[in-house]
Amino acid sequence: MDIQPTIEHRAPLRYVGVRHHVNGRAFGELNARVPELFAFLAGQGAAPAGPPFYRFEVVGDEAHVVHAGVPVAADVRAERDLFLGTLPGGRYATVLHRGHPDALFDVNAALLDWAGREGLRLDRTAAADGEHWGCRLEVFRTDPQVQPDPARWETEVAIRLADG
Q1: Residue range 8-35, pLDDT digits in tens
Q2: Alpha helices in the chain (DSSP H)
Q3: CATH for 6-160?
Q4: Domain-by-domain residue ranges, the chain?
Q5: What Rg do the C-alpha atoms of the chain give, in angstroms?
Q6: How far apart, in Å, are the Cα atoms of 124 and each of 41, 108, 116?
């Protein structure tokens, strides 16, 4: 896969999120929670401060721990199983994917391969349950309500570097 990665510095970013254990590529339950995050913010009178994202906390062979999140600038109070978190600032390897989300597995693999070839150390730790990531994101830049054709969606993959 031909990709055009960049390295960029990001400031810390607060978000409201929900954490899920996801098996394989079955993200349906997590996808269903994203509108709830937007509704929660609206109910608190807070506007989103950016597009929704998935934050991959643990990536294992069989299961992953993933946060669905929406950036927020206002002070909000988390409820139920929602929480407030912060994406860490630092240097990130990023790539923008234009096309169907089904290709994101390959896009992630290509970015990881590129980082390895470039000698970049990623913010991750190996453990028995998989790789624990300091910050590994898929940022959904296209609103499906505005652009219903998944072939025209834009998704940014961003992985924090170990040197921050």
Answers
A1: 999 999 999 999 999 865 688 899 999 9
A2: 28-43, 104-117
A3: 3.20.80.10
A4: 6-160
A5: 15
A6: 31, 14, 13
Token pair of 138 as six digits: 């898929």
Could you tell me which of 151, 17, 127 has the C-alpha nearest to residue 64? 127
Calculate the dihedral angle through the C-alpha atoms of 106, 61, 25, 134, rounding to the nearest 10 degrees: -70
- Strand 90-98 and strand 124-127: the pairing is unpaired
pLDDT of 2 reads 87
Alpha-carbon separation of residue 110 from 47, 90, 96, 103, 113 (angstroms) = 34, 21, 12, 11, 5
- At 59-89, the pLDDT tens digits run 998 899 999 999 999 999 999 999 999 999 9
- Cα–Cα distance for residue pair 90/9, rounded to 1 Å: 5
pTM of the model: 0.95
